[in-house]
Design a protein that fits this description.
The protein is an alpha/beta fold. It has 11 helices and 12 strands. Strands 1, 5, 6, 7, 8, 9, 10, 11 and 12 form a 9-stranded mixed sheet that branches. Strands 2-4-3 form a 3-stranded antiparallel sheet, with no helix packed on it.
C-alpha cells in the first residue's frame, strides 16, 4: 500500500570522505583550536557564532538559519570505538551497524523490509547517486537507484518496449551465469523486474512537478531536487538517500571544505523551501553524517583521517540544540591524535527509528543504545 503524504519520511545525506569536525562546528573559545590549526583554522571574524562557545564555518549560513529556527540538532562526538580510519571500512560500519565484522545487510534496507515486507511498492526506497549504497542493500529488498537526471531515468531507457528490455536482461543473465552460478539469473531477474517497475513509476514524478524555487546548479542540489520531485509526487517513498563529496581534505582544505559545505547548505535550503511551498515539509526529517572526522592538528595544508565527527538532524519535528559533549582537544584525551568518539552512531539511528519511523531499533541496529532526544 502506498504511503500517504503524512507518513514519516527520512532523507539521508552522506558527506562522503570524512568531514572535518573542528572546522564545521568550531570551538572558537578553546585556545587549543588555534594551537592545532595554524594552516587551516577559520579566522575569528568569519566564524558564524551559534552561541557563546561554538560557531559554524562561514559557508554554512543557510544551516545557521535552521539552527536559529530551533530545527537543527548537532550530535557531538559521533562514531564508534577503535576507528580504523579507513573510508571503506568506516563507511561500511555506518551502513551496516556492524563494527566488529563485515555486515551483509544495510540498516535502511532493513527499514525498507519492515515497511514493505511483500514488496508492494518498489519505490519505498529511492537513492540518488552513482551506485547502490550499502546502507540500502538487503537481498530481496528493491531500491530505485537514480544516477542522473530524473527525467532521463529508466531501466535500459534506450529500449522503449518492456518485453524487449526483459529479453536483454535475460540474455545478460545467461551470459554471466556460467561464471557466477545460477543464482545470478535469479538475482538479475528479480532486480531487473523491480528496476523496470521502479523506473516506470518514477517517470511520473517530473511530470507532476512544478515549483517556483530555483535550485543551485550543483550536483547535490540536483539530487535534492530529484528527491523533492519524488516526494511531491506522493509515490509512497519513505526512504531517500544521496551523497556529496569528497570531504577528504588532506590538502587544499581551504577553500575546498567551504565550497563543499556551501553546496550542501544551499541545496538543503532550496530543498526545504520547495517542500514548504507544497506543504510537504512537515513529514520529512533529514540526517547528515560522515564516516569519520579528521585529525586535530592540521598537516600544513589540510587534515588527515580522524575519528569522532559531528552528525546533524534537521526538520520540523527536530528539537534543535547540542546533543552530547564536544570531545576534548587536550592531548591526553585524544586517541592517536584524534577526537575521541563520545556518542555511538547507532544511538542516533535508534532515535530516528523509534521516535520518527516508529520501528523497534534493536533488530535494525543490533542492540540497545542511548538515544539522544532530538525528536519531538
Amino acid at each position: 500500500m502506498a504511503a500517504t503524504q503524512k507518513d514519516p519520511v527520512l532523507v539521508t545525506l552522506q558527506l562522503s570522505g570524512g568531514n572535518d569536525y573542528l572546522n564545521t562546528v568550531i570551538p572558537f573559545n578553546e585556545p587549543l583550536y588555534r594551537d592545532n590549526r595554524p594552516a587551516v583554522g577559520i579566522a575569528d571574524d568569519q566564524i558564524l557564532h551559534i552561541d557563546k562557545d561554538y560557531g559554524f564555518h562561514p559557508a554554512m549560513a543557510p544551516l545557521k538559519k535552521v539552527w536559529d529556527q530551533g530545527k537543527l540538532a548537532i550530535l557531538h562526538g559521533t562514531g564508534y570505538a577503535n576507528s580504523p580510519r579507513s573510508h571503506f571500512r568506516s563507511m561500511d560500519i555506518w551502513h551496516t551497524c556492524e563494527p566488529d565484522k563485515v555486515g551483509t545487510e544495510g540498516w535502511l534496507g532493513r527499514v525498507a523490509r519492515e515497511f514493505d515486507p511483500k514488496k508492494e511498492n518498489v519505490v519505498t526506497t529511492v537513492s540518488f547517486g552513482p551506485c547502490l549504497f550499502r546502507a540500502l542493500a538487503v537481498p530481496g529488498v528493491p531500491v530505485a537507484c537514480v544516477a542522473g537526471p530524473l527525467d532521463k531515468y529508466g531501466f535500459l531507457p534506450a529500449i522503449q518496449e518492456k518485453q524487449e528490455r526483459m529479453n536483454v536482461l535475460s540474455r545478460f543473465a545467461r551470459m554471466y551465469s556460467p561464471v557466477a552460478g545460477s543464482s545470478v539469473m535469479e538475482y538479475l531477474g528479480t532486480t531487473g523486474l523491480d528496476g523496470l517497475k521502479g523506473a516506470d513509476i518514477l517517470k511520473v514524478a517530473p511530470q507532476r512537478y512544478a515549483s517556483t524555487v530555483k535550485y543551485p546548479n550543483t550536483p547535490i542540489a540536483r539530487k535534492l531536487q530529484g528527491i523533492a520531485q519524488v516526494h511531491l509526487a506522493d509515490l509512497g517513498t519513505r526512504i531517500f538517500y544521496c551523497d556529496h563529496g569528497p570531504f577528504d581534505t588532506h590538502a587544499g582544505q581551504n577553500p575546498a571544505h567551504g565550497a563543499l559545505w556551501s553546496a550542501v547548505c544551499e541545496g538543503l535550503e532550496a530543498f526545504m523551501a520547495d517542500l514548504r511551498e507544497h506543504d510537504h515539509a512537515d513529514n520529512v526529517t533529514i540526517l547528515l553524517f560522515s564516516e569519520f572526522g579528521r585529525r586535530v592538528h592540521d598537516n600544513g595544508s589540510g587534515t588527515d583521517h580522524g575519528a569522532a565527527g559531528p552528525a546533524f538532524v534537521l526538520g520540523d519535528h527536530v528539537k534543535g540544540g547540542h546533543y552530547g559533549e564536544y570531545p576534548s582537544l587536550k592531548a591526553e584525551k585524544l586517541v592517536q591524535g584524534d577526537l575521541n568518539p563520545s556518542m555511538d552512531f547507532r544511538g542516533i539511528y535508534s532515535t530516528i527509528l523509534e521516535r520518527w519511523l516508529r520501528l523497534d531499533p534493536k533488530p535494525i541496529v543490533g542492540g540497545r543504545f542511548d538515544q539522544p532526544a532530538f525528536l519531538n
